[in-house]
């Protein structure tokens, strides 16, 4: 219930009349007589969503009314646990809708999202602003020291009380109405932002019919572009703004005019035109500020960070600045090194952003004798998938069995039954690997449902991992780049956080942790990508079956920190832009582009092209839940660097360390403060220097 109540997001609904007989036949509401109560996707139609959500909202309201009108004195069970368990149907229905709206959307689904968002926001506000309900919660909270509560109970109580306080329960009269107004407006704005970003990404393609302009590209790139053109009914080769298309072209093509056109298209998504997000950015930042001010905070960052591992704005800004100070000069050296090499090849003038990918790849090949073409044949997707599963088996004793009897939502998605070493079913895992127009860009982990215990019965999770990897072609299977391989490991780490979760309350289990802690389980997994002991077990050429040569693995290891400072500063720039927008103290009415340029100036190591901006397509912070949280990627890198050193000390497959990581961190989710969990695992607090040392800056 808390996930619906207290997360300000784009979740919302619209009330449509629905008869009792109709709703009983609605597959989203009816009992799921499926394996492990998985969603019956083939039965769910577009017309089922709104009536099901309306019905679930009404049921949720009735559950809340029953808590409020309970004649018994408030107790932990009849108020806090009852609230946690309320809204289970709404969670199930909205879980299906919003998961699919990200990976299998349509114009109709996007309209439904617009329809239902105000209703979900209204429900959230009606609950969090209900004085009678809050009075019951506060009565339990005030006697917390005398209650016999375990660690999970105490955390749930604390989170529930804070959830109310941070969602306007302490406001009065007109201020509560303002809170309703602001949160409703924000939910609509963030939803519109995300829809515009997706539409802008899909709106641009570039068709090339002159073979000379693609002749230099590796075969895997040409085949992918040709397959895209064929799928669109076009001749030649078609480049899109999806990562598996845009990235390789920018990396391997020397066609500056085409690359500049592509770069500008990619970096002006949401800048003016039909899918403009410029005004949405300003409005989102200003409404967030209004909400924070209303709740007694000077900035939105102050409001958000109070409940993060970092705890306050100064800590985050100091952290970002410390990393920037330690690496900025090295980042400039990285750029200078690549520029000098480009000039040795005849390049004249200053490297522009659209030149960067091509020349840094050329220098990487020169300096380390390695490129994606050498590595990809050893990273066939099916083999990589099996290897990622194998890593979970070696560390945690898990097994993954295909489950064709369980329905998927798309023909490309596959599903697996995940079992523990003792044969216990821990989770159902959905994998969705390839880009399509109905799927947003990027990679992510989510759940159709999480872990909970009710009436002594444990509900295990339905976990989904979504990527946008290189598609197979008529001649070649899906061969991953090294970056795609590490992305798989990263998202699988999130998946393990959900799969291995234990606990009574879904709202504090699995990945329901503080945002700057949630990336630790994912970031740590990336370390195995360059471990020879791991690669030797499975990395074989997809045609010859030969193992990846030792010298190629050595090159991968040597190149691990290639441009580490540059990429670190680039990531810091994202976090600094995020913090800049969310530390404004007065509403911003100026130019959005000028604001971004000023925020990025301290981290600028390459020229910024006129008219380009990343903010208008920066879905993480403007529609994806990472507002004032993007620094968390770097924060978690520090944790991961320190944590992985423990594996290195004991052995990269150490059962001792893996067990501690599982039982002290992965299983416990948000049951305790993350620093407590981390110290329980590692024995000491993490230090920023661990990440700096790992970069091996020179």
What does the secondary structure layout of this molecule look like, with pairings?
Elements: H1 2-6, H2 20-24, H3 46-68, H4 76-85, H5 88-103, H6 107-128, H7 131-142, H8 151-165, H9 174-203, E1 205-208, H10 219-231, E2 237-240, H11 243-252, H12 256-266, H13 278-294, H14 300-305, H15 313-344, H16 353-368, H17 372-375, H18 381-396, E3 399-402, E4 414-419, E5 425-432, E6 444-449, E7 452-454, E8 457-459, E9 462-466, H19 482-499, H20 520-525, H21 532-535, H22 550-558, H23 564-581, H24 592-600, H25 619-622, H26 632-650, H27 655-666, H28 674-682, H29 689-695
Parallel strand pairs: 5-9
Antiparallel strand pairs: 1-2, 3-4, 4-5, 6-9, 7-8
Helix pairs in contact: 3-4, 3-5, 3-6, 4-8, 6-9, 7-8, 9-13, 11-16, 15-16, 15-23, 18-19, 23-24, 26-29, 27-28
Tell me what the structure shows.
With 698 residues, the protein is of the alpha+beta class. Among the domains are: 2-128 and 130-166, Neurolysin, domain 3 (Orthogonal Bundle), CATH 1.10.1370.40; 204-266, no CATH class; 376-551, Neurolysin, domain 3, CATH 1.10.1370. 54% of the residues lie in helices and 6% in strands. It is built from 29 helices and 9 strands. It has helices spanning 2-6, 20-24, 46-68, 76-85, 88-103, 107-128, 131-142, 151-165, 174-203, 219-231, 243-252, 256-266, 278-294, 300-305, 313-344, 353-368, 372-375, 381-396, 482-499, 520-525, 532-535, 550-558, 564-581, 592-600, 619-622, 632-650, 655-666, 674-682, 689-695; strands at residues 205-208, 237-240, 399-402, 414-419, 425-432, 444-449, 452-454, 457-459, 462-466. The strands form 3 sheets. The protein has a 5-stranded mixed β-sheet with strand order 3-4-5-9-6. A hairpin with a 5-residue loop joins strand 4 and strand 5 (425-432). Helix 15 crosses helix 23 (564-581).
